[in-house]
Amino acid sequence: MSKTIGPFPKRSLISLTFGSGGWLFLVVLLVAIGIIAISLAQKDMGQRLDANGRNTTAIVIKMASRINNGTGTNKSHTRSFTVSYQFKTADGANIRDIQNVSEGFYNSVAKGDQRPVRYLPSDPKTSEIEIGRGTRAGSNFLMLAVLLIVVGFGGIAIWFRRARAKIKLRDTGEVRHAQVMAHEPIVRGKSGKTPPKYGHATWRDKAGNVGQTGALLIDKLPGVGQSITLYTGPSGKPAVWEGEVGSR
Fold this sequence. Notes:
By secondary structure, the protein is of the alpha+beta class. It is 36% helix and 33% strand. The chain contains four helices and eleven strands. The strands form two sheets. Strands 6, 7, 8, 9, 10 and 11 form a six-stranded antiparallel beta sheet that branches. Strand 10 and strand 11 (239-241) form a beta hairpin. Helix 1 runs antiparallel to helix 3 (133-172). The relative contact order is 0.18.
């Protein structure tokens, strides 16, 4: 067995929690914050229209639908629908606007149709041709944000517990040595299209226990045949490689 590699800088609980994948859940939380802002804006517009809006009649002048995030053959694609319309305010001003609408509303109208519209007299460009959509959209966005917050904090909690368990092994576990037997690249998408960036190193210790490192950049994995230090439980498992948590 070759000389054992190391030592390695000691890593903190925060570094282990967010450095190896937990940061993705921070991104989820940031997305949730953005969605909350959209939700509040939508609900505010809906409430202002409900409280101070004036109803009139609009003429549909254009309709459009668009495929998003896919092609016509991609079953996972989504569609968005917009309606352009024109109406005259009580002051005689001609207003043109374009709004995202639901598929049901889109299918219920045609170019040239006259439809009820609600607008703010103080700001006629704030209007709804699908009356009530702003309030409903705000509520839907808020529910999505709550779901993302649960996922974000739940994911961080899981990574935090894993990181804490690894640090406990580093600080109090048994020290064992093992030899790296192989590298196992993590292949995503169609095999062979893109060289893998991440992988695991498979190791075997003197007692015959076999395990893997966590997912690491390929160039950060210990080389095949190298001797590595493990911090383990009494039976040899669970085990963590010294290079992932830092030296004791």
